[in-house]
Write a structure and sequence with these properties.
Oligomer: single chain
Order of helices and strands: HHHHHHEEEEE
Helix content: 25-40%
Distance between the termini: 181 Å
Largest sheet: 5 strands, antiparallel
Radius of gyration: 56 Å
CATH topology of one domain: Nuclear Transport Factor 2, Chain: A
Shape: globular
Strand content: 15-25%
């Protein structure tokens, strides 16, 4: 009898174990709710965020990627030439490219430095009665052929050189032959601007007439005349040492 009651109790305990919570008056929790599938990554970006979308950045090409223009070389700036240098004018005449700026338009008369240096060389040549060392003091033949509007300017220039030599010999005699003279100074005579077209000239220039060399004899000052000087650039030259001849 006792064994039968023990067996019945064991059976009742086994039946109560699966529903222990029910035996205690509690509800057994239901199965967990399934988790929603994660949205694909690319769909996350499509979800509205409530903020305006940022504009895509501007694409700026790197300077290294730009197509550079062909190198045309340095650009030269126009600058006035230094005094005495020649510049090319706006002319189709090739010879005009050699005309110095002082012989293009009227400006300040070139200074006396060149003329005084000429006078210092000329006086000893007159005393020595030797024109050979100072023939270069005559206006040069190259500029002369450009300056003079003559059929044969080179032939006329040869006459200038011959007259220069003759006048030098004449001045040597005027000074008493081999007299010793000391150079004391030089001064211009009457100077004027000779425009283009005057005296058969194609190029204008300054002309100075009756210029004077001052020399000391040991007792008094004497003067030696240079009848005509004209300039080329900033340099002065003799065209007529004595009287003007044609």
């Amino acid at each position: 009898m006792r064994r039968a009651r023990v067996a019945a109790a064991m059976l009742a305990l086994g039946a109560c174990l699966p529903a222990a919570a029910a035996c205690r008056g509690e509800r057994e929790p239901g199965p967990a709710a399934p988790m929603p599938d994660a949205a694909p990554a690319e769909r996350v970006a499509d979800a509205p965020s409530g903020l305006p979308e940022a504009a895509p950045p501007d694409v700026v090409d790197s300077p290294a990627d730009e197509e550079l223009p062909a190198d045309e070389g340095p650009t030269a700036e126009a600058t006035p030439p230094p005094a005495g240098e020649t510049v090319a004018p706006a002319s189709d005449d090739p010879a005009a490219a050699e005309v110095p700026p002082e012989n293009r338009e009227r400006g300040e008369r070139p200074g006396a430095e060149s003329a005084e240096a000429l006078a210092r060389r000329l006086l000893p040549a007159i005393l020595a009665d030797d024109p050979a060392p100072v023939r270069d003091l005559v206006f040069p033949v190259g500029p002369f052929t450009m300056l003079k509007d003559l059929p044969d300017p080179a032939a006329y220039h040869r006459r200038l050189v011959r007259w220069f030599e003759e006048d030098l010999h004449a001045k040597h005699e005027e000074l008493g032959g081999g007299a010793a003279l000391e150079f004391r100074g030089f001064r211009f005579g009457r100077c004027e601007w000779v425009p283009k077209g005057v005296e058969g000239n194609r190029i204008p220039y300054w002309s100075c007439r009756r210029n004077r060399i001052a020399a000391w004899t040991g007792r008094r000052v004497v003067e030696v005349e240079i009848r005509v000087l004209i300039h080329w650039g900033r340099e002065w030259y003799v065209t007529h040492l004595g009287p003007v001849r044609r």
